[in-house]
Amino acid sequence: MKKVRLIVAIGILLAVGYSLAGCGNSTGKGSDQENTQILEKALEYNSPKKSQERDMNITVNSEIKYKDGKVIKGKEEYIINTNPRAIKMISNGSEGGMTVFHFVNGSSVDMYHSDSENNNKFVEEKDIPIENTSVPATLQLGTLNGKIEDYKVLKDEKVNGRETLKISYHSKLEEFNSMLKKIIKEGTLDEKTIEKNKNLQEALDRIKKGKESYYWIDKKDYKVLKFDIDSTDEELIFHYLSNNNDENIPVSHINIGTVLYDNVQKVEKPKI
Predict the structure, then answer these.
(1) pTM for the complete prediction?
(2) Cα(64)–Cα(50) distance, rounded to whole angstroms?
(3) Cα 270 to chain centroid, rounded
(4) 1 DSSP assignment
(5) How many CA within 13 A on the CB side of residue 14?
(6) 234, 176 in Cβ contact below 8 A?
(7) What is the pLDDT of residues 217-227, one digit of tens each?
(8) How far apart are CA 22 and CA 211, in angstroms?
């Protein structure tokens, strides 16, 4: 059970772990004053507090490439309800799938996850402390943190026919770095492994410096419509964290996320 929670939690941390410049149809760049106003309103609308007041459907398509050329593609859908607070995560990919439900009761969570051999059969875990689950990190998906001076306006782009403003934000990855310090101190990721693998040490050094994240903001209603994520360093760290001695290391992990706000499905408890 603990292993399942660890895998899900780290998986979300990878998703919150940021950043690759994305694609779209460029339409130039608006005036500085106009863009500043859009950014100010976007920061308010998409703050973690405000975002937790609305239902959302977030889809993340991922692609992991390995040293030998192997490619693993996946898709994760997060259905987030506010009242009552519930999250359904559906994961599908070239190596199988999983469905996980979280139902929040104050500071604790009831979790249901699909059996490893049967995606329609669920295992129940009740009264898990919320900080030991992926819920806090999931609720950060698609939100905007920090101050306005931490952001840069890049350009105008169209996303699914909508006029958007593409912005960048430098994240210090404090939550991920905090987790890394803990697992290194506990010996889950030992110093010998780090010293032996130069690429792992370089990834840890880059993570400490933080990363640029990119978002596309709807210019009419200020909603985050899209975000792109490069989780290559985090994926490499997870590779070694899993006590994986396989030399076929991941060399690229790209994610593209989209956010929908209308007609979000209501999450109901699965049958056990």
Answers:
(1) 0.80
(2) 32
(3) 24
(4) -
(5) 26
(6) yes
(7) 999 999 999 99
(8) 15
